[in-house]
């Protein structure tokens, strides 16, 4: 249901707020890829998303998944 209170069905324009939940799954998937040797946490994110440009140069995958 799009809205339980209003009894509205899910539509193609329904927005799902999943960002906070999906972060943990994304980080877990990245760690599985690292364990399989398919990437390194110390890889620059530019290796996988080159369109970010040189301003993202010092950022690594580790920076993105690390929770401080």
TrEMBL record:
It comes from the Bacteria. Residues 4-66 form the Beta-lactamase-related domain. It comes from Paenibacillus glacialis. It holds the Pfam family Beta-lactamase. PANTHER family: BETA-LACTAMASE-RELATED DOMAIN-CONTAINING PROTEIN (PTHR46825:SF9), D-ALANYL-D-ALANINE-CARBOXYPEPTIDASE/ENDOPEPTIDASE AMPH (PTHR46825). This is Beta-lactamase-related domain-containing protein.
């Amino acid at each position: 249901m799009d809205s339980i209170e209003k009894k509205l069905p899910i539509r193609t324009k329904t927005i799902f707020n999943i960002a906070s939940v999906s972060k943990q799954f994304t980080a877990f998937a990245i760690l599985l890829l690292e364990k399989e040797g398919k990437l390194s946490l110390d890889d620059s994110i530019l290796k996988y998303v080159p369109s970010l440009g040189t301003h993202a140069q010092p950022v690594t995958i580790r920076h993105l998944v690390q929770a401080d």
